[in-house]
């Protein structure tokens, strides 16, 4: 649950001065073990609107073996462990409500291998998606998953991140080929492998993807890569109605047009973007498109999508094929978080997401919009509409707790609405501590199986306790 | 391990006449519980070359609730359970070496829902892929995964099947959205859901996909569907060398050309196909292609792939755009199993597969071919080469046990070769009983995690015991 509680600073060290675990870790890591307040607070706070909860110490790891050694010490002393990548998670994944040790993996920055012919690579968990794409710049390859923030790839695997072009390239679930994981008892395992497919035993890779550090700590990630398309075309189109925009998306997807991105901004979101990025888009429900392919094929896709949009009241199609123009357009889309914060100076943001079958998307968004307006909170809507996934960005005055209360009620109603439509409480942000309360409603008896798996792998409940499940 | 042991018929009933489990199941199912020898033997034998191992009884289930009731009885009496779909598995998945009850799901034939706008459907486990596509015939949609055999969709999920067009549409892993599963204690769970993506908790769906009935019995499957492409173009091209053919594939994939299928037949396989399907393909390494898209785009893909092939010594490209011609071509590809059996009258076949990173594929196939020739067994090679996956079909005289011995040695060397190249012991056939011995070499310490999960969900080891893992 998001909490607006005024954040009292954590004491300089919460661990007892002679804490044997801290002593052991200091022996292992030297200056790469910190108990300084500022460091601990930074590691107990995320991008979103949750109360900071600092760990007792932060361990800056550099290798898988070091993570395993830290884990063994923590297991021996029965102390919780919280993994930390870039700190960009949104649902309370990195807070340490039970204290313990935060393992910061951001120093694990090596790209371990790039296999150009096989379109794959292996990276340490701390490499961010932008750093990887920079590393790949001369290969003709790229890693497409783009959740907006420059998250670490280990963190993206841990939360099953996705973002704008999941509609074409899939999510982390489809693009992680294998993992190196440190388990609760310090064992190191390698899951998956480099072949494109395998039926050899249980799919441990996808069990750890999205497990948010509750089953093990991801220290290395094997990823699929893609050839950079010869041509990219981007376009913007505004619609008379939100239902028209969504229906255009449904037909586009059904027609097999492989859109690389297709994003919906409601009129409130367009307004925020116009102000922030100095654009003059009509104040209407708007779709942002991007198409990848050969010159001919990207143009044909754009033309077909354009015809479909017209049939549903889409107008004023603006196309951008030059990289400069495309970048300007997509920068505006990527900046919605800051555009939204700028709507209300001094405000803090709280991002939440749900995902529904696409046939219910218009209905789900419209009812949610109505609820927002009637409740009287500020919350533009933006959506990865090709997947049926959309986000609310609540823009809240940190000094007005009633705003948070209203937002929480809107969020809860939105989640229950999504579930009643066959959807999920989170399409890409994960469960963290915020959405635990919805898991039973979504998965029913299956939650008991998740709990069995958790206890089998982490019987002491040391791995990021309090996240995803109550055990 | 494949075994050529002469198959003695199982006695008419192996269960004691007053077996209380059989009595209980008969009370539940009446005539849908069989202990007849012929029925039991049919259910203990697969398409491949493994010794038949009959269960004590076969239960013909019609609903999830019935499967759960059967499972509860078996748990109460600590007796093994083996799920059975269409009986088309290849690695000893359906044999019942420890007896117990085979649950035949082939009567679970209902297509429960088709959601056209959302491109998804839900089926009972016994629906076969052809039956589903027949059901979909007026919707403009299709389910693409095609392992060759008309397998049940529950069985395809359980073995993580794929086949010729996985290179474009993915495997069962990417196309199963959710499952209904009966657990070892009779609990019924629903995993996944209808939204295109979710980060809500552990990915149970993909844990059960490929678990071959060892963690639970899949009774319903939620699947992704696709719009039937406007145009399909197929083509055949022969190459001077196998390395040339594979290099053409690598560049085609790297260029982002979304081939729907790209299959490699070595010259021995081409010979078998020519004889069986009365074709006159040159006796050379040959690629079969298929492209899906709009008219313009499918043609452009074919043209681009053709140019690439030419650069690697590909010649005699033959194109087929008419459905009739495409069908003839792909029928020949689909019939390789029978074409191979026809090479040696009275022979039995044993199909095995491995998968490697595509950059190692030519090397892996050539070394395997050399080994086959030196060892002196008959084994054409066919491959889903876009994925790096290829198959040997050993064609064996059932009365010459030395042939099987040689084949087993070739298979073992092939698997170890694939593993040394970063590959997997099976790309799509699964582990069953045959490939258990390779799991440790492939996954190392991770096998201990698989075992922990197995014991957490099935502490009595009742679910398809002896498959995938030794517990």
From TrEMBL, chains A, B:
It comes from Pelagibius litoralis. This is D-lactate dehydrogenase (cytochrome). GO terms for biological process: lactate catabolic process. Belongs to the FAD-binding oxidoreductase/transferase type 4 family. Gene3D superfamilies: 3.30.465.10, 3.30.70.2740, Vanillyl-alcohol Oxidase, Chain A, domain 4. It is an enzyme of class 1 (oxidoreductase). PANTHER family: D-LACTATE DEHYDROGENASE, D-LACTATE DEHYDROGENASE, MITOCHONDRIAL-RELATED. It holds the Pfam family FAD_binding_4. GO terms for molecular function: D-lactate dehydrogenase (cytochrome) activity; D-lactate dehydrogenase (NAD+) activity; FAD binding. Its EC number is 1.1.2.4. Its cofactor is FAD. The keyword Nucleotide-binding does not apply. It comes from the Bacteria. Keywords: FAD, Flavoprotein, Oxidoreductase, Transit peptide. Residues 51-228 form the FAD-binding PCMH-type domain. The lineage of its organism: Bacteria, Pseudomonadati, Pseudomonadota, Alphaproteobacteria, Rhodospirillales.
């Amino acid at each position: 649950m998001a909490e607006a509680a005024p954040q009292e600073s954590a004491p300089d060290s919460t661990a007892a001065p002679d804490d044997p675990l801290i002593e052991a870790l200091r022996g292992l890591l030297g200056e790469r073990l910190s108990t300084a307040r500022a460091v601990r607070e930074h590691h107990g706070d995320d991008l979103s609107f949750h109360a900071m909860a600092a760990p007792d110490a932060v361990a800056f790891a550099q290798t898988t073996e070091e993570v395993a050694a830290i884990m063994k010490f923590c297991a021996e002393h029965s102390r919780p462990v919280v993994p930390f990548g870039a700190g960009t998670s949104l649902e309370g994944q990195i807070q340490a409500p039970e204290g313990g040790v935060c393992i910061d993996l951001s120093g694990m920055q090596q790209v371990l291998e790039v296999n150009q012919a096989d379109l794959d690579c292996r990276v340490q968990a701390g490499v961010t998606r932008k750093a990887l794409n920079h590393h790949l710049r001369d290969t003709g390859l790229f890693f497409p998953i783009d959740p907006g923030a420059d998250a670490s790839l280990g963190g993206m695997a841990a939360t099953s991140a996705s973002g704008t072009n999941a509609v074409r390239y899939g999510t982390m679930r489809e693009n992680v080929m294998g993992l190196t994981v440190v388990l609760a008892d310090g064992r190191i395992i390698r899951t998956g492998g480099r072949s494109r497919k395998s039926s050899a035993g249980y799919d441990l890779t996808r069990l750890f993807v999205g497990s948010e550090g509750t089953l093990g700590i991801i220290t290395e990630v094997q990823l699929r890569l893609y050839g950079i398309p010869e041509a990219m075309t981007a376009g913007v189109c505004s619609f008379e109605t939100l239902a028209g925009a969504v229906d255009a998306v449904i037909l586009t997807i059904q027609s097999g047009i492989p859109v690389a991105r297709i994003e919906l901004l409601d009129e409130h979101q367009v307004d925020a973007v116009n102000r922030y990025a100095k654009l003059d888009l009509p104040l209407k429900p708007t779709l942002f498109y991007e198409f990848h392919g050969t010159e001919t094929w990207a143009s044909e896709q754009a033309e077909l999508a354009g015809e479909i949009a017209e049939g549903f009241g889409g107008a004023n199609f603006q196309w951008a094929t030059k990289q400069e123009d495309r970048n300007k357009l997509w920068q505006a889309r990527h900046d919605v978080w800051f555009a939204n914060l700028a709507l209300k100076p001094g405000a803090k943001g709280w991002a939440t997401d749900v995902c529904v079958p696409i046939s219910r998307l218009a209905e789900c968004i419209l009812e949610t919009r109505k609820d927002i307006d009637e409740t009287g909170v500020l919350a533009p809507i933006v959506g990865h509409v090709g997947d049926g996934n959309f986000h609310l960005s609540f823009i809240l005055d940190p000094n007005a707790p009633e705003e948070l209360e209203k937002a929480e009620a809107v969020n809860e109603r939105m989640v229950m609405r999504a579930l009643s439509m066959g959807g999920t409480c989170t399409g890409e942000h994960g469960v963290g501590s915020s959405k635990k309360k919805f898991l039973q409603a979504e998965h029913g008896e299956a939650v008991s199986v998740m709990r069995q798996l958790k206890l089998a792998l982490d019987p002491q409940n040391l791995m990021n306790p309090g996240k995803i499940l109550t055990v």
